[in-house]
Specification:
Two copies of one chain form a homodimer.
Chain A (H helix, E strand, L loop, with lengths): L8 H22 L6 H8 L3 H4 L6 H24 L5 H18 L1 H9 L6 H28 L8 H13 L13 H17 L13
Helix pairs in contact in A: 1-2, 1-4, 1-6, 4-5, 4-6, 4-7, 5-6, 5-7, 5-9, 7-8, 8-9
Chain A binds a DNA duplex (30 and 30 nucleotides) through helix 3.
DNA sequence: AGCTTCCTCGATCGAGCGTTCGATATATTA
DNA sequence: TAATATATCGAACGCTCGATCGAGGAAGCT
């Protein structure tokens, strides 16, 4: 009865966000189809039926996890790209952004890469659209990189894009944050590995150079 | 009553193999936990209970799919590697073998990369061992490549290994065999992309190369 | 013929699933 | 105080799942 000045919609949003985080963890641990709403209710400390006040179905829950995370990753990336001119630096920004977000939201990112097929109908369509957006941003950067460097055509752009995402997304299968390889280092490794193969020489880091 | 000279164990093995193929397809389509034994029985044209004559449990079925495929990929690879001396050619053989097997057994390979976590206990342990074997073969080849080239240390060997597997395994998420990119071409693209970043210049193909 | 082995099946069980519904407690507004 | 909106809960429903079991058909052997 003290400080309830703001509308309850804030508390509502906060609890929903907390539920989404817990759900993402459980989906990441056990897989979407193997996880039950009861698992989530137990970890959240609320009743089974009480959860349905915050989402309409298990699938909507899965959708919200993927939708919010993808939007966040895309928005953050576009923000970081704004001040960047060099094509190679754009690519470097994308890799660091993706890997960084990955390591800070392992559960959600695992759900995104692992449970894409678990969505159906309209949910699936909307996530597909977001994924294409993200993929397009990446592919356009690669096109730019190719244009402004002496890069040959080692691989078609779509193959290169998929290869890059493969390198980055596979992280969830082996990497544990806080290991002996820090995240920034890991991102830089992947960036150089890919760029070296894509344009035929190691990617430029903070200090740069040119070749012919 | 005509040609039943051989012991029935051959027919038994043939039917088991057919069931494993069907199960791999269904697991690949719907995911392990979302797929039911009844789905498999329907596609196989046999009764639900009849299936249990060929395997003890749904999880054993999943195990057999992964176990047989991994062994086959490893055996084939070791055979192909036998006559190869050059380190780079070994790497090229590995990539082509992996991608080739992938495209010919999409269902099984998808199950391997996607349903590893669905195994538990002893089953999980044994598949983990096979994966480590495979990964070790790859990492040793990379070590050799690094030793015999002017490769700098763009990335630690384990990071490079994981990146390579990421590039290759991500195929299942976007590639459709029989598309406008033939499998051998795709494998060569991935090989050059990776090698170029790993050793600092495009990987040697059958013919020429570049120096850096 | 009888006996045994390999194989297949329908019927069924208990458990767990996602979801619904009516009751209820609390806070806000009139 | 009464009325309303917000939030939570226990109990239950209908359904699907993996797995089991005993019956029985077909083939080979003695």
């Amino acid at each position: 009865m003290a400080d309830t000045a703001s509308p309850t919609s804030t508390e509502h949003e906060e609890k929903l966000e907390r539920l989404l985080t817990i759900a993402a963890e459980i989906f990441a641990e056990k897989g979407y189809h193997n996880a039950s709403i009861r698992d989530i209710s137990k970890r959240a400390g609320t009743s089974l039926s009480g959860l349905y006040y915050y989402f309409a179905s298990k699938e909507e829950l899965l959708f919200m996890i993927q939708d919010r995370s993808l939007r966040k990753v895309l928005t953050t990336l576009r923000g970081k790209l704004e001040g960047v001119d060099s094509a190679e630096e754009k690519l470097r920004t994308l890799v660091h952004n993706h890997v960084g977000f990955f390591s800070e939201n392992m559960a959600a990112m695992r759900v995104i890469t692992h449970e894409y097929d678990s969505l159906e109908g309209e949910y699936r369509t909307r996530i597909t659209e977001l994924r294409r957006e993200y993929s397009d941003v990446c592919q356009e950067i690669l096109r730019e990189v190719r244009r402004f460097t002496s890069a040959g055509d080692v691989a078609p752009l779509n193959v290169a894009t998929s290869a890059l995402f493969g390198m980055m997304n596979w992280i969830y299968a082996w990497y544990t944050p806080g290991s002996n390889v820090p995240v920034e280092r890991l991102a830089e490794h992947l960036y150089r590995l890919f760029t070296g193969g894509f344009i035929g020489r190691p990617g430029k880091s903070s200090r740069g150079r040119r070749a012919g």
